[in-house]
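note to self — DONT lose this again. spent like an hour looking for the file last time. sequence + predicted structure for the chain T wanted, 119 res
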Amino acid sequence: MPSTSSAPPYYVLASHNALQSSTLVQASSILDHVDLQYRHADDSPLSLLPSHPDEHVFVLYHDPDNPAAPTIKSTSSQFALSGVKVSQAPGASMDEDKSPNMYVLQVTSIRADPSQYAS
């Protein structure tokens, strides 16, 4: 069971699926690390824009008053986020500065199938 710590997410991973021709490919059992950059509500929204074409930005909204219900969004047209799973991070300590929870972003890559555009 996840902790109700109000600290922002620290342990964040991504789990990938691929969507091809309206068919969801089986979820990968591989978890990827993500680069974290913390932003505050009063920061410019321009800081969320990708800095280069191959960068994909996922935004996890953390509400300290409701840490068990984070929401996520993607700024990328190539990826969609379908959910976030929150669980106790294995081996994490109850350090007051870090949340002991692990956040796994459910990421789906959207790849167009060229055959669907064939005449």
